[in-house]
Structure formats: structure tokens, C-alpha cells
Amino acid sequence: MKKITLLLILVIGFTSCKSSKQVVTKKNKTTKTTRTSSPTTSSSKEIKNIINYAKTFEGTRYKYGGNTKRGIDCSGLVVTAFNKENIALPRTTADLSKRGEWIDVKNVKEGDLLFFATKKNSRSVNHVGIVTKSRPGHVEFIHSTTSRGVITSKLSERYWYLAYVQARRMM
Questions:
Q1: In this structure, are residues 68 and 150 in contact, taking their beta carbons and an 8 Å threshold?
Q2: Which residues on adjacent β-strands are paired with residue 161?
Q3: Judging by DSSP bridges, how do beta strands 138-145 and 164-169 pair with one another?
Q4: What residues are annotated to the active site?
């Protein structure tokens, strides 16, 4: 009888020990970017200018919070390149990941932003890059890495493929 009572107490104890906190997921509300110039539809010339300007930073070392050729971080590269075409964007990767229009990775085009979660055991966005080339099954992007500075990578590389979280269109 004591064994049954003890077993019953353990079963009740384990079933009542669940967390009272419920996990709620929701899709973040997206907002469009603001332009400091007249609002027109994005042209392929603007996108090419953004990409070409970002490429001028290739080889620049990584510097947290940097936005010059002396040192630049990933969101600094994005903001600086878009700023060149008078397109104002938020400075942090987290804020960038909430702007623009969410798009499926199969539909990315040049100038779109790719977001990644590079920290172990985390899916929180902490890295961003600009798509430089896109065709079915092949996406290249420019970004600033802590180890190699500003480089161009392929989304098909194992590291980036596994770290990929989302894509957004700012223009």
C-alpha cells in the first residue's frame, strides 16, 4: 500500500510540474523603409549602385559598430550601402530584420537582405548580408564577418545555409 501511495504522489507531482508559461509565437509586423529622397519605385540602377558601393568595402576589416573603410560591421555595411542611394535604414541587425517585406528565399533578388543566426543554440538574428547575385539554386551575398572582414559568400555553403533565418526586401 505504501508503494502505491508513493507512486501516486510521484505521478501527481510530475504531472503538476509543467511550466505555467505558455509560448506564444507571432509574426512581427513589418514596416516599409523610409527614403530621404522622393518616393519612387526602386530601379535596377539603384540596386546595382548599392551592391557596387558595398563591394568597395571588400577586404575591409570587421569592427563592431564601424561604418567606414577603416572598419565595418555587417549592419554598418548594409546601412552605409543603402545610405549611398538615400535610403535610410535602422542601424542594428535586429531592427533591420523587422523592416521591409518578408520574402521566400526562392524569390530573393539582388539588393535583398539575408538574415542569419550565427550564435550556438540560438535562432535570434544577429547577422545580415546583401544579395549580390541570385538565380535558381544559387545566391551570393556580401557581408562583414568577424574573422575575414567584408567578403562575398554563397548561401549554399553549409555554415550559411544552416544559419539562414529569413530574407527581406527593403526596396
A1: no
A2: none
A3: unpaired
A4: 74, 127, 143
- φ, ψ for residue 45, nearest 5 deg: -65, -45
Q: Has this prediction a pTM greater than 0.85? A: no
Reported residue count of the chain is 171
Greater pLDDT, 30 or 164: 164
Contact (CB, 8 A) for 160 and 154: yes
Phi first, then psi, for residue 2 (nearest 5°) are -65, -35
The residue type found at 134 is S
Please tell me the distance from the alpha carbon of residue 102 to that of residue 35, in angstroms, as a whole number.
Answer: 19
Report in angstroms the alpha-carbon separations of 130 from 14, 77, 114. Answer: 49, 9, 6
Question: Cα angle at 34 between 30 and 40, to 5 degrees?
Answer: 110
154 contacts: CB under 8 Å, gap ≥ 6: 138, 139, 140, 160
C-alpha torsion angle, residues 127, 132, 133, 139 (rounded to 10): 0
pLDDT in tens, 91-140: 999 999 999 999 999 999 999 999 999 999 898 999 999 999 999 999 99
Q: Parallel, antiparallel, or unpaired: how do β-strands 71-72 and 138-145 relate?
A: unpaired
Question: How far is the C-alpha of 47 from the C-alpha of 53, rounded, in Å?
Answer: 10
